[in-house]
UniProtKB/TrEMBL annotation:
Protein name per its UniProtKB record: Glucosamine-6-phosphate deaminase
Leading EC class: hydrolase
Residue intervals of the Glucosamine/galactosamine-6-phosphate isomerase domain: 7-201
GO cellular component terms, semicolon-separated: cytoplasm
UniProt keyword annotation of Disulfide bond present: no
CDD domains found in the cross-reference section: GlcN6P_deaminase
A Pfam family of this chain: Glucosamine_iso
A GO molecular-function annotation: glucosamine-6-phosphate deaminase activity
Reaction catalyzed: alpha-D-glucosamine 6-phosphate + H2O = beta-D-fructose 6-phosphate + NH4(+)
Length: 218
């Protein structure tokens, strides 16, 4: 059943949503769903990577979802990693997502260090969409996708906590033992910017989809 054919979907990259995207493509190919009226807004993009770089998040989205469904290309949005003025691009993107009323449904993964989008552990929650220095933990975790650790970009453009929390519904997917500490802290710990996902405790409609390994510290 399609509840809102013209919805705004907030999308994530990484390994966590791949199964979700496969399932959506299967349903689309079986004629069960259409994305013709959908607008998508992605969480983040590496600074310095073009959309054609095979590790850019734009490229990931094209190959894992957009190229296989009927979403209109002009309705798919990812921050521009090549923008000359990355801060201005973040401000533009933030205003754009807000102009849509934020996502109807935001899909999230969680970093081993508890990041959401690329909102890294920090002394305070960063509300606006911003340029962020990736932590060593994130560079390490994402090195698996690059030829070498040195090739992992050191900065990214990420939706801030403001527009993520502005989503009407949030679905987080977490799997594997390396997410267990983050999942525990997110659900049971105090709301703390050192574990950014803990802010989700303050959101009224979050669904966590996790495997046993990710829940093993609960
Ligand atoms: C990706 C993103 C990140 C990932 C997180 C988990 O767009 O925003 O927060 O969701 O790093 O990555 P995976 O799923 O690869 O473990």
């Amino acid at each position: 059943m399609i509840v809102k054919p013209e919805c705004v979907l907030g999308l994530a990259t990484g390994s966590s949503p791949i199964g979700t995207y496969k399932g959506l493509v299967e349903r689309y190919k079986a004629g069960k769903i259409s994305f013709a009226g959908v607008t998508t807004v992605n969480l983040d993009e590496y600074k310095g990577l073009s959309g054609t770089h095979d590790q850019s998040y734009r490229y990931f989205m094209q190959h894992n979802l957009f190229d296989h469904i009927d979403v209109r290309p002009e309705c798919t949005h990812v921050p521009n990693g090549l923008a000359e003025d990355a801060e201005a691009e973040c401000a533009r993107y933030d205003a754009f997502v807000r102009s849509l009323g934020c996502a109807d449904l935001q899909l999230l993964g969680v970093g081993r260090n508890g990041h959401i989008g690329f909102n890294e552990p920090c002394d305070e929650f960063v509300v606006p969409t911003h340029v962020v220095d990736l932590t060593e933990s994130t560079i390490e975790a994402n090195a698996r996708f690059f030829a070498s650790r040195d090739e992992v970009p050191r900065q990214a453009l990420t939706m801030g906590i403001g527009v993520i929390m502005g989503a009407k519904k949030i679905v987080m997917v977490a799997s594997g033992a390396d997410k267990a500490d983050a999942v525990y802290g997110m659900v049971k710990g105090p709301v703390n910017p050192q574990l950014p996902a803990s802010i989700l405790q303050l959101h009224p409609d979050v669904t966590l989809v996790a495997d046993k390994a990710a829940l093993s510290k609960m």
